[in-house]
Design a protein that fits this description.
Layout (H helix, E strand, L loop, with lengths): L1 E2 L4 E4 L2 E4 L4 E6 L4 E6 L2 E6 L5 E3 L7 E4 L8 E3 L5 E7 L3 E7 L10 E9 L5 E7 L8 E3 L13 E10 L7 E10 L1
Parallel strand pairs: 8-10, 9-11, 10-12, 11-13, 14-16
Antiparallel strand pairs: 1-2, 2-3, 4-5, 5-6, 6-7, 12-15, 15-16
Length: about 180
């Protein structure tokens, strides 16, 4: 672990930027890493990979007009929350991009997609990097939405599980709630 004059820290080719923070590796054999500010623990990564945050967690979100205007793509590189603010129309298939190259077998990722439905637009299908998942899309309550909410916002949550190495080795669970 080395830190250069500009505050960039490198460990085995992984680069981090530390600002008013101390980084300590408490036990190199177990890989326990602590991020400290003025001696107070802020983040700990345990030897089993568990990340423990000692304060709030901020997540960026991507804002767009409509899902259709985004070519129905929801990119992992743009964050896990995507909010579309213009009225949607008709049935949409959401395509989660950047997932296959990022996840390893046995890993999962969750997305939140927020639509302005206007009693018309809704999501009824999902793909991962353009490929339909072998496990299909399973909906809370047993069936896909057949219409959007009459007003407000429809909030969809999707959890994607990778179960192999093939491009279709996914199972997706989805749910939709209207907030008006």
């Amino acid at each position: 672990l080395t830190t250069n004059a500009s505050g960039n820290t490198t460990n085995d080719g992984v680069s981090m930027r530390l600002v008013d923070t101390d980084l300590s590796i408490d036990n190199r054999e177990t890989g326990l890493i602590n991020f400290l500010t003025a001696g107070t623990e802020r983040l700990r990564i345990t030897s089993d990979g568990t990340a423990i945050f000692k304060a709030g967690l901020v997540e960026k979100y991507k804002q767009g007009t409509t899902l259709a205007a985004a070519s129905n793509n929801v990119a992992l590189t743009s964050g896990n929350v995507h909010r579309f603010t213009t009225n949607e129309s008709g049935a949409q298939t959401v395509n989660f991009t950047g997932v296959h190259a990022t996840l390893a077998n046995g890993e999962s990722v969750s997305f939140t997609v927020i639509l302005t439905p206007n009693n018309s637009g809704y999501i009824n299908a999902a793909t991962v990097d353009g490929v339909a998942p072998y496990g299909g899309l399973k909906w809370s309550g047993g069936s896909a939405p057949s219409a959007g909410g009459a007003s407000g916002r429809d909030v969809y949550t999707f959890t994607i599980f990778k179960d192999g190495s093939a491009t279709n080795s996914y199972e997706i669970f989805g749910a939709m709630t209207n907030y008006a």
